[in-house]
Amino acid sequence: MSLLEVTDLTKHYPVRQGIVMARQVGTVRAVDGVSFRIERGETLALVGESGCGKSTTARLVLRLIEPTSGTVRFDGQEVSGAALRTLRRRVQVVFQDPYASLNPRLRVGETIAEPMEVHGIGDAKSREARVQELLRLVGLAPFHAQRYPHEFSGGQRQRIGIARALAVQPDLIVCDEPVSALDVSIQAQVVNLLKDLQRQFGLSYLFIAHDLAVVRHMADRVAVMYLGQIVETAPKRDLFAAPRHPYTRALLRAIPHPDPRRRGQVTPLGGDVPSPMNPPSGCRFHTRCPFVQDICRKEEPVLRDIAAGTRVACHLADTLPPFEAEIGEGLS
Ligand code: SF4
Ligand code: MG
């Protein structure tokens, strides 16, 4: 049984117009039929360009917003009613912006202790001891508990956010772009901290990111989202070595190659992301896909197994040229 099982999740927002917003003129399909699982101790990275529905998916998993349809099962239980309380403790979150996510009027110790208070864990004295322990776990000196968020750097604030997420001993932490707001030099430290904590406590992560270089360090498996849907899921190694979906290939070509001899071969992703209000017919990627055929404009491809652990939503997934050949390996 998977720790988290998300099935056919959708979030549609009505778009209204008029003086009293009475007239519905369309529907934004922010998340449109998303399914995935996360196993215990595993990191699933959810990647894609901004606006593809990653953060909305994260908020649906956390039940910060209600889904339009679909289910979330946590540890075998469908999340609703009484199970929601369990979810609120066992699934924690680390947000992107360590400047905005900490209450500036609370001392760091209070911020970290707050989830324990909310869930009625321990008394004031034991919570204080736990705060000290948590600060040490994230690499900060215990005396920092008395300080305020503004006295810390971005990287330190993100460590505080991680300590707060750990306070109630969660099984799963949703990390929504946890290092995107940090300097590159600090990013690796925070990613390594998350990995250390995962090993120590057997944590699972839903790791939201647009930066594939970070995902390469962090993920066990990757799910690629485009316009509210997952278009490819694969073990990390397979996804980076042999991406199947044309969108995944385009994303990979847009980052510097880890092999310095091939650093020059960076192709920015062309074209604009279409509106999620009127997504293209058939395959949503067809307006930007170099392999597009007639069928792509007419029929929506479904996510299907095409290799062990790899699922792809593309009509031509079995017939595309290998990724290496496509970018002309051997030319450099
Ligand atoms: Fe490209 Fe067609 Fe595959 Fe969509 S289904 S990704 S348009 S080849
Ligand atoms: Mg986002």
From TrEMBL:
The keyword Oxidoreductase does not apply. The keyword ATP-binding applies. Keywords: ATP-binding, Nucleotide-binding, Transport. One of its GO terms (biological process) is peptide transport. It comes from Falsiroseomonas stagni DSM 19981. SMART domains: AAA (SM00382). It comes from the Bacteria. Residues 4-252 form the ABC transporter domain. Its main location: membrane. This is Oligopeptide transport system ATP-binding protein. Pfam families: ABC_tran, oligo_HPY. InterPro entries: AAA+_ATPase, ABC_transp_ATP-bind, ABC_transporter-like_ATP-bd, ABC_transporter-like_CS, Oligopep_ABC_C, P-loop_NTPase. GO terms for cellular component: plasma membrane. Belongs to the ABC transporter superfamily. It is found in: Cell inner membrane. GO terms for molecular function: ATP binding; ATP hydrolysis activity. It is a peripheral membrane protein.
